[in-house]
Design brief:
Blueprint: E1 3-8, E2 13-20, E3 24-32, H1 34-38, H2 45-67, E4 76-82, H3 86-103, E5 107-111, H4 112-123, E6 131-136, E7 141-148, E8 151-157, H5 163-173, H6 180-188, H7 211-223, H8 229-254, E9 259-263, H9 270-283, E10 286-288, H10 299-312
Parallel strand pairs: 1-4, 4-5, 6-9, 9-10
Antiparallel strand pairs: 1-2, 2-3, 6-7, 7-8
Bound molecules: 5'-O-[(R)-(carboxyoxy)(hydroxy)phosphoryl]adenosine and zinc ion.
The site of 5'-O-[(R)-(carboxyoxy)(hydroxy)phosphoryl]adenosine (KG4) has 21 residues, from helix 5 and helix 6.
């Protein structure tokens, strides 16, 4: 049995968790800074770093108290080292190093995007590999062909804005708060997807491009003053969901797989989930989404990913540094 202590601080959520063998969350506490950053319309890195610093030891105490685990039983400390914001990442990394050193356990460096992927495996034991992974977060949009837990190939990615980023930017145009994804989803519930927005294609068949769609919405709003923002939000959400699922289904056919994992903050989106349900009913594709509360950033997914490294004996040294632009395959 391995108890992995997870630390996440790559963006605007400070999170601490203890997970047993990558599948049982013994305790998890997350402090979201969304309210603070909403005032500025996006994450302010310096403010995020300060909040991480203020919250991280308090969250640790809460997790240790709730799980009633003696620190002597912790097997390793896993921490996000990228991608993310440099300052916020360094807070988590320094803290994790100090814990690993004082507890005399190995330190594990986790790629945040692999954390998102492992959030699905935390609860879902029915995934057949190989499969296709649709990774959709605030800064990343990628399609992966996943052969095993440690072997995957990037077959497509966004050439400009990430899917979550396009939600955030269009939300701002509609005078909605940050983060834009949940806000667009909320407003779209009262709208009808009556407008046909373009679905920009990229040169390579599995790549994505969202900046043209964002610009289209911008000019649409400039030229159509009396539209209901609920309808614009619903039309935009429908378009993004259709692009994401359309490209994913293409990959499913070509790679001859039946399972798809959807991971990252945008995996919380209900229009995306509905499109996936339709593809399941029509074509029998098995879509696997994380539990709603594990779609956005949390330390349980980092501890779950850490367990994979732990089993493989892949540990980091105390010289570990933040890698803000870390790619999925690294
Ligand atoms: O994975 P995540 O928490 O952070 C990153 O690793 O980037 O994703 C955050 C992104 C934001 O862009 C946010 O607007 C988007 O995920 N998001 C959503 C929803 N919830 C969060 N997008 C669409 N629908 C949602 N319900
Ligand atoms: Zn994330």
């Amino acid at each position: 049995m391995a108890l992995i202590f997870g630390v996440e601080s790559s963006c605007d959520e400070t999170s601490i968790a203890i997970v047993e063998n990558g599948e049982r969350v013994l305790a998890e506490k997350t402090a979201s800074q969304v309210e603070t950053h909403a005032l500025y319309g996006g994450v302010v890195p310096e403010i995020a770093s300060r909040h991480h610093l203020e919250n991280i030891s308090q969250l640790t105490k809460m997790v240790m108290d709730e799980s009633k685990i003696d620190s002597k039983l912790i097997s390793a400390v896993a921490v996000t080292y990228g991608p993310g914001l440099a300052g916020p990442l360094l807070v988590g990394i320094s803290y994790a190093k100090a814990l690993a050193y004082s507890w005399k356990v190995p330190l594990i460096a986790v790629n945040h995007m692999l954390g998102h992927l492992n959030a699905v495996f935390l609860f879902d034991k029915s995934i057949s590999l190989p499969c296709i992974v649709l990774m959709v977060s605030g800064a990343h949009t990628e399609l992966l062909y996943m052969k095993s837990m440690s072997s995957y190939e990037i077959i497509g990615k966004s050439l400009d804005d990430a899917a979550g980023e396009s939600f955030d930017k269009v939300a701002r145009m509609l005078n909605l708060r940050y983060p834009g994804g949940p806000e667009i989803e909320r407003v779209a519930k009262d709208g009808i997807p009556r407008y046909k927005f373009p679905k920009p294609k990229a040169k390579e068949k599995y790549d994505f491009s969202f900046s043209g769609l964002k610009t289209h919405v911008k000019y649409f709003l400039r030229d159509n003053k009396n539209v209901k923002i609920e309808d614009v939000a619903a039309s935009f959400q429908e378009t993004v969901a259709s692009i994401l699922i359309g490209r994913t289904l293409k990959a499913v056919k070509e790679y001859k797989v039946l399972d798809v994992i959807v991971a990252g903050g945008v995996a919380a989106n209900s229009a995306l989930r509905e499109k996936a349900d339709m593809a399941h009913e029509k074509e029998g594709i098995e879509f696997h989404f994380p539990e709603l509360s594990y779609c956005t950033d949390n330390a349980a997914m980092i501890a779950a990913a850490g367990w994979q490294y732990y089993k493989a004996g892949v540990f980091a040294g105390l010289s570990l540094n933040a890698v803000p632009n870390l790619e999925v395959g690294q």
